[in-house]
Specification:
Blueprint: H1 2-44, E1 57-62, E2 68-71, E3 76-85, E4 92-98, E5 101-110, E6 115-120, E7 127-134, H2 136-140, E8 149-151, E9 156-160, E10 165-170, E11 175-180, E12 184-191, E13 194-201, E14 204-214, E15 217-219, E16 222-224, E17 236-243, E18 246-252, H3 254-257, E19 264-273, E20 276-285, H4 298-305, E21 308-309
Parallel strand pairs: 2-9
Antiparallel strand pairs: 1-3, 3-6, 4-5, 4-7, 7-8, 7-9, 10-11, 11-21, 12-13, 13-14, 14-20, 15-16, 17-18, 18-19, 19-20
């Protein structure tokens, strides 16, 4: 009995390693076959989906943020550049975006050449934009595969050309400023200590820019000369800046110009020249709607940048 048990144990000790060896050979052989077959398929089919070590990617090169493009009477030609990795013959789709999302498709189903000559037209309103580059195939397969897309790292500016502006030149008040020539209404208003020239835009009641020229300011409760910038010193975020070589103080006066039933984004630029205060006040009233930032309004900023004291 004891001998039989020893035989049984001896057989078990032999059979178990043998079985394990056979299983190992099968696994190793199968893996080698799969690897060999996969490599052969890869050679024959270069358009298969890239592996994790061959990540599909796209990168916008230009415009990539900070550039200024001016619209003119004729379409402006600018080059959009990008680079891709492992696109494997996929086409390219290019779009224009702003803070509100997709603005327009610039080109679609074009070859992945790395560049595209974009003819900008006058229908694009001045503003801050980004370029987005993707692939139509990527968008179609977004639910089952990677959606490959990139956009400009920061916004670039599209602004109106100088040819679309006129110059308001005032010998009476000693300044000049450029304004859009076909959309602007100009009014002269009497204000405390001087006058204001108010520029408003047709079919747009939200945006305006006022230029105040005052020779008197409040001093100890009395309006008298010389003028200064102290009446808006209660504004926020005081910053020194230059406009065409003249030193200005810039204030955020949104809090001061907002009313009970509406909100506004407004900035005041103030400079003193020979006892006269020149104040430029671009403003956007947005009520209870989406908050606006006057510093991002391209047209108003173009007007401010054109201001000159004679």
């Amino acid at each position: 009995m004891k001998k039989t048990n020893n035989m049984t144990n001896h057989r078990s000790g032999f059979i178990i390693p043998l079985v394990l060896a056979v299983v190992a050979l099968i696994v190793i052989g199968g893996a080698a076959y799969i690897y060999s077959n996969k490599a052969e398929v890869s050679k024959k089919s270069p358009d298969i989906v890239a592996t994790s070590s061959q990540k599909i990617s796209v990168k916008v090169i230009s415009p990539n943020g900070g550039e200024t493009l001016a619209l003119g009477e004729n379409p402006l030609l600018t080059t959009i550049k990008w680079s891709t990795s492992n696109f494997r013959g996929m086409n390219v789709l290019i779009g224009l975006e702003n803070d509100n999302g997709w603005v327009k498709t610039i080109a679609e189903n074009i070859a992945d050449s790395g560049s595209y000559e974009w003819k900008m037209d006058k229908t694009i309103p001045p503003g801050k934009y980004k370029i987005a580059v993707t692939s139509p195939q990527s968008l179609l397969n977004a639910s089952t595969g990677p959606e490959v897309v990139d956009e400009s790292d920061a916004t670039f500016t599209i602004q109106a050309s100088e040819s679309s502006f006129k110059t308001y030149q005032s010998s009476k008040y000693g300044f000049g400023i450029k304004y859009p020539n076909s959309t602007t209404k100009i009014d002269e208003i009497d204000i405390s200590g001087g006058n204001q020239i108010l520029f408003t835009f047709n079919n747009d009641t939200q945006r305006s820019i006022g230029v105040s020229v005052v020779t008197k300011s409040w001093h100890d409760g009395v309006m008298k000369s010389p003028a200064d910038c102290n009446d808006t010193a209660s504004g926020d975020n005081h910053v020194s800046t230059k406009i065409n070589g003249v030193d200005f103080v810039k204030y955020d006066v949104s809090r001061l110009v907002s009313g009970m039933n509406s909100s506004a984004s407004a900035t005041e630029y103030c400079a003193i020249r020979n006892g006269t205060a020149y104040k430029i006040i671009p403003k956007i009233v947005y009520g209870s709607g989406t908050p606006a930032n006057v510093n991002n309004d391209v047209i108003l900023n173009q007007m401010v940048a054109s201001f000159e004291i004679n």
